[in-house]
Predict the structure.
Amino acid sequence: MCIGQIGNLLPHVALSANLAQHLMPAWGLSAAEGGLLASGYAFGYMLAVPVLTTLTDRIDARLVLLCGSIVSGLATIAFGLFAVGFWSGLAIWSLAGLGFAGAYMPGLKALTDRLPAGDTSRAVTLYTSSFSLGVGLSFLVAQLVADRWGWRAAFVFTGIGPVMMAVVCLAMEGRRPEHKPGRLLDFKPVFANREALGYIFGYGAHCFELYGVRTWLVGFWTYVIAHQGAPSWMSPVLVSFVFAVVSMPASILGNEAALKFGRHRAITAVMIASAAIAVLIGLNVGAPGWAVAVLLLAYGLTVPADSGALTAGMSAAATREHRGATLALHSTVGFGLSAAGAWGTGVALDFAGGPQSAAGWMLAFIVLATGISMGPLALLWARADETKSAITAK
């Protein structure tokens, strides 16, 4: 499943990897338009995931996973072949996100449905953390292919990646869920589960920050090279790849810390640290290239370190009969705020002078810090309900 997911993620940041250097100049886009174009993927995902993930409570999740993987791959290839400007690009890239809505959380459901009873925290974390390795390869492959053969070839090439998950689906044994009466899109039990909601809203804050920085990472490092200088080997390709790949061990270690010190405590500490580093980067965009690279490496460790713990906490808090609906809301909130993160960061860039302005990048990182700062508040809100219930019980 993790290998298949890496294939599914090959298209994931193909647009972000080529946005600042290729698409914005070619199509004459502002930073806000570029951010909105990138957020189309998350927006398509957000629209489709409530239906597709909740559907896994009724039919075998691997069927949803198979269809979603195929749509994601074909839409990515279509972007490379047919996108000619902002509107056509937005429509096709939103379709790619819609396909991925059938590929990520339904994949997690297909995995957990086939795991033995007991604590699945480490398995869930390995699956979610392999997301980072897939994104790293997406950054790497999309930029290398674009630099050699053009950005259109990058989309066509990365669009082949989901074939890996299709093969996994065909090799997987069938597992039909138990029949559940009631409406398909019944989120009332999920909204009544305040513990799960705390993790879901925390995940939304995480996604706002994560998607915002991934959308603009290549553009930011291009700015650093142009204005502060950096060693020739510190190219945008290498920096974006390393930033994404260190996310995998960071997510695993973050979950281990959550198991040892308590999930809420560990997640809150990581989020506060991430907000602090984002502010430091914003205040030091004019520092030497090597210093900014060190801060970015630290940021690459804190941004994803809460991901596995948040998803594992949500999965553990979800009732078994409503796990699909809980996963659906988790992804809807997460990718809805992902879209807001990509677009909002672009708006901040334009407001403060654009991608060639130090003030623009400073404001962009302050926006990211503000977004992740909402996560601890969500967890505190959920914990307050637990404390109140415990006092009432006594």
Observations:
- The first helix runs from residue 2 to 8.
- Confidence is low (pLDDT under 50) at residues 389-394.
- The chain has 18 helices and no strands.
- Residues 180 and 354 are 52 Å apart (CA to CA).
